[in-house]
Amino acid sequence: MVYYPVFLNVANKRALVVGGGPVAQRKVETLLDYGISVSLVSRDLTSRLKKLVDEQTVHFAGTQFNERHLEGMFLVIAATDDAGLNRRVSVSAQARGLLVNAVDQPEDCTFIVPSIIRRGDLQVAISTSGKSPALARKIREEMELRFGEEYEKLLLIMGNIREMILTRGLPQEQNKRIFKQIIDSDMLEAIARKDRDRIRDILQSALGDEFDRVPVLDQVLGGEGI
Q1: From CA 139, how far away is CA 81, in angstroms rounded?
Q2: Which residues make Cβ contacts (< 8 Å) with residue 101, sequence separation at least 6?
Q3: Which of 89, 124, 204, 222 has the most CB within a 10 Å radius?
Q4: In angstroms, rounded to a whole number, what is the distance separating the alpha carbons of residues 5 and 51?
Q5: How far is residue 26's CA from residue 226's CA, in Å, rounded to a whole number?
């Protein structure tokens, strides 16, 4: 089976995680990173999950899974060491039309979680369609060396430039030329070298008098930024 890749806006959505071990903990922590409200069902919890529950960062819904736990959920993750329970959670979730992932049981999943490289708003997702998570992890580790923090900073600058440029009402081709000029330059290398002068030269050449209107530039170039 080949999975259709998609990035979802899950901020303020609700997710149910069934399980309380190290795997469930990793799933919970990742969900929280993306702004999802997490409910947890498990007999036992890692110390980290117990802390998240005690801090009310995660809602503890009980020790035994029940179909009522699925009410109001956007997605469900079954991460127990009981394959039968994971399957029961999956069947119940799918009957309600919910997205569900059963860890290490691809036949019980409607989605799988890729191996992710994240640099700010830049995300690179790697999937082997569930065939080999180990290979996906190896590729991710190799690519993490390729994509450094300079990509996060470049994307921060480009996002602000794009917002500024699109308000000018210029022809689309002119906008594309500006974006391409910056991206095709040695901007990434200049950011990696922390070469303020070269970064300013590139942006001033592309943007002209509007160079000083880039609202995030001081944040990225100043202080401890670049």
Answers
A1: 27
A2: 75, 76, 77, 78, 109, 110, 111, 112, 113
A3: 89
A4: 33
A5: 32
Print pLDDT tens along the chain (226 aa): 788 899 999 999 999 999 999 999 999 999 999 999 999 999 999 999 999 999 999 999 999 999 999 999 999 999 999 999 999 999 999 999 999 999 999 899 999 999 999 999 999 999 998 889 899 999 999 999 999 999 999 999 999 889 888 888 878 998 999 999 999 999 999 999 988 889 889 998 998 877 766 766 666 666 554 5
Report the side by side order of strands in the sheet with 59-62: 59-62, 37-41, 14-18, 75-78, 99-102
Q: CB-based contacts of 216: which residues, under 8 Å, 6+ apart?
A: 156, 157, 159, 160
Going from the C-alpha of 102 to that of each of 19, 86, 96, 108, 213, the distances in angstroms are 11, 6, 16, 6, 48
Cα separation, 220 vs 191, whole angstroms: 9
Strands 75-78 and 59-62: unpaired
Topology of the domain comprising 14-113? Rossmann fold (3.40.50)
Angle between helices 149-166 and 196-207 (to 10 degrees): 20
| 100 touches 93 (CB < 8 A) | yes
Pairing of strands 115-119, 122-126: antiparallel
**Pairwise CA distance, residues 59 & 25, whole Å:** 13
Please list the residue range(s) of the chain that carry CATH number 3.40.50.720. Answer: 14-113
